[in-house]
């Protein structure tokens, strides 16, 4: 399948480019497909290609020494991945895994450099994309470093519990994030941490409070 | 009854991203709107909610207390 010009135009990197410029970019783009749960990028590995998502979605995450995952973002159609190592030449700072079947448009590192030299508009676009990403990551760092999110999530669970049969309001992770003043990714991590502590059990669409006392103690813990 | 994510057809733009990430195959786009296939069980991974840009699909949790903790 040929790389669609219309789609290229919708990618933030190529916003504002003339048709002739997009045509020259298209010649540098190759396609890559992957199935569900495939690792596209491995943390610590060198990066050769920049990718744009044409269809599907991917999770960007870091893994701790104990094997715990922290999701940093979800990459959707029109968005890019692998930017940082492609631009600074260092290893991948994150891992990226597909959430379902994906179609990626790739560009070799040398071609990205050539495109930046040849089209100043792309350079301006890239600065904007990276600045937006820094803003998102700074906000995530703030949440993970300074906010006692796990305590807030514990409190939200205690305040919205609906008894054994669950007559209380139902909450999404997004709603819990809004209540806790944090990102959805951080709520996901907090729920996992609470489960590991034995305070709750995730049972499909139910969050079962297994140890009320432990949840209370977590709400009172200093940040 | 099988619990399934909740869809707001008014918010759905029919992009189908949720369908691509659903490993239970519980979702399909019908007439440009995502639709639940009710015979399929959902394991509540919440990936469909996570990828949805418009907030059209949600996976709300019921918060309950275990027996003995009431």
Helices and strands in order, then pairings?
The complex is a heterodimer of chains A (223) and B (70).
Chain A: H1 5-10, H2 19-26, E1 29-34, E2 39-41, E3 49-55, E4 58-63, E5 69-75, E6 80-81, H3 83-88, E7 95-98, E8 102-108, H4 109-118, H5 120-146, H6 149-159, H7 173-180, H8 184-196, E9 200-203, E10 206-209, H9 212-220
Antiparallel strand pairs in A: 1-8, 2-7, 3-6, 3-8, 4-5, 4-7, 9-10
Helix pairs in contact in A: 4-5, 6-7, 6-8, 6-9, 7-8
Chain B: E1 6-7, H1 17-21, E2 27-30, E3 33-36, H2 47-51, E4 57-58, E5 62-65
Antiparallel strand pairs in B: 1-4, 2-3
Q: Characterize the overall form of chain A.
A: elongated
Uncertain residue segments of chain A? none
CATH architecture of chain B: 2-Layer Sandwich
Largest sheet of chain A: 4 strands, antiparallel
Structural class of chain A: alpha+beta
Strand content of chain B: 15-25%
Helicity of chain B, as a percent range: 10-25%
The CATH topology of chain B is Alpha-Beta Plaits
Account of the protein in words:
The complex is a heterodimer of chains A (223) and B (70). Chain A has 223 residues and is α+β, with helices and mostly antiparallel strands. In chain A, 44% of the residues lie in helices and 22% in strands. Chain A is elongated, with a radius of gyration of 21 Å. Chain B has 70 residues and is an alpha+beta fold. The longest helix of chain B is centred in the first third of the chain and has 5 residues, at 17-21. Chain B has one domain (6-58): Alpha-Beta Plaits (2-Layer Sandwich), CATH 3.30.70.20. In chain B, strand 2 and strand 3 form a beta hairpin. The interface between A and B is medium-sized, with 37 and 29 residues.
